[in-house]
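User: For my dataset I need records formatted as: sequence, then structure tokens, nothing else. Please produce one.
Assistant:
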Amino acid sequence: MSNNNSYLSNYFHKNGRALGSIGYFVLLMVIFLIGAPEAWIRPNLHQSVFVMMPTLIFLTIPLVFLVASGEIDLSFASTYAVAAYVFALLVKNGVDPAICFVLGVFTGAAIGALVGTLIVVFRLSSLVASLGVLFLLRGVILLLTNSRSITIMEIENHWIYPLLVGNFYGFPMQIFWAAIFVIFCYYFFNKHVFGIHIQHVGDNSVSAEQMGINVNAVKIKAFMFVGIGAAIGGIFTTMITYTFFPTQGFGYLLLALAAVFVGGTPYWGGLGTIIGAVFGVGIIAYMEIGIIAIGWSGEWRQFFNGLIILLALLGHRLHGERVR
């Protein structure tokens, strides 16, 4: 009996952050179910969430790696737009969409590598430097497009469209790709040497360097992964709407960051949870829809987004109090 109690105690201690995020998600679902039962049982409401969630997952999960390494990146919202722009522009000019997809993802990785190198090599504050890159890249996009959108209706006739963003028995295909992405990232973060290095670097970079870990390379790779995730999210959104907008991605900046922290990844580095981040995405996505379903005005979204973030941070802090 005592062994079972010890096992449960160790399990909850080890997975407390992820379980806390799951608890917040369940509580949110119960509140919305009580507040709007008729709306909440309609499949259409959940399908709209499934359309939004994959994009947030592609943005949020790589940020867990980066935050766990002790850094932060705000430029991903503009990387999202730049990669989508490259994709849309090439498709519009007759290039095969599959090649355009690869080039768009490569663009995201290249931007991530540049941002990471700028921050790591020159020892700049990742918060301030990435904020500068955020506005710099957004300005470049606005200048290149003259603030005009690009429509790519022709992509619907290409095989890549139903494969990536089509429908499978009423479910958007992107939700399955997001699930594969989550499974891959879970093992990459928890089982692969790169994920272990990320956590060592975030916990104590000096100690990690003494262990023979190339700290700069690990951090730059983490920035590249954020760029790849942002590129995938941007391209998927462009395919779903058949349109590239110069301002796209900006609305996901705070939502993705909120999902990371609500999901149980602390801002001080060294720790992270992929499963918690997925439920963090679920909390943010359903918050956007649930407020409207209950019948409240959209202004309440900002209030509850802020409230849930603060409550989650307080809960995670009380669970894992530590001194860096």
